[in-house]
Amino acid sequence: MEPAFMKKKPRGIALPEWASQITALRERLRINQAGFARRLECSAMTISRWERGLLQPSAEHFVQLGNLGGETEAWFFWEMAGIEAAKMVQALSGASRKKRPNVPRLEMARAGAAAINPEKVPHVVGLPLLNAVIGAHGSAGDKRSLRTIPATEIIGAPVSWCPNPTYTSLLRVKGHSMEPLIRHGDILAVDSFQIDRAQLYGKVVISSGKTGLCVSRLRHYDTLDVLEAENREYDPVVLNKSSGWRIVGKVLWWISAAP
User: Fold this and answer.
1) How many angstroms separate the most distant Cα atoms in the chain?
2) Which domain does 86 fall in, by range?
């Protein structure tokens, strides 16, 4: 006998609007249910049940769906989470993750006698500095999802530095195992759209596991994917189902304070 959760929706019964909207969003992003599940940190079966109207997403998942959607989709999903539009705008200081605030024009710095031509300054995007820390390899980091951590301020960065600006956020590092490359207190720019391991070998990545968010370098050895510290005195971590670690973003660049 087929389990109840595997039964198809009876013909003639309309799907809930949220189910249709979820399917439309996934198809617009051109990813399958498994890929969509990885973005939302759930299972492919859960996505299937959502799209068939058999299971309504939690408030947290509706928020995450809103973060992935366009402006109209975002407000639909956020309202399904019980968030009032006016309060959302106030909480985000007038900017959603899909629409960055306008960064104020800054005073142009002078180097020598020549002033920089404002017309030649590259466009900038506002990136949220999240109220959380990433642990250097072997150190404990924040245990929340990147999509649910609130921002403390917005920092401007050239758009050319951010291939996926709506998926890019800033976090501060805690720990010393990635030195001298990345130091304690540095601010990392993290692109949570780039999570395909095959495209990230040799790159600095952010992973999530039992000790929270962690910054490491991803290596591939024969059949193994491994997270390593720059300081080889720290033990590597094998990426597999039993370890519980998974990639949640690529480190694009980082900012260090002057010594």
Assistant:
1) 82
2) 4-91
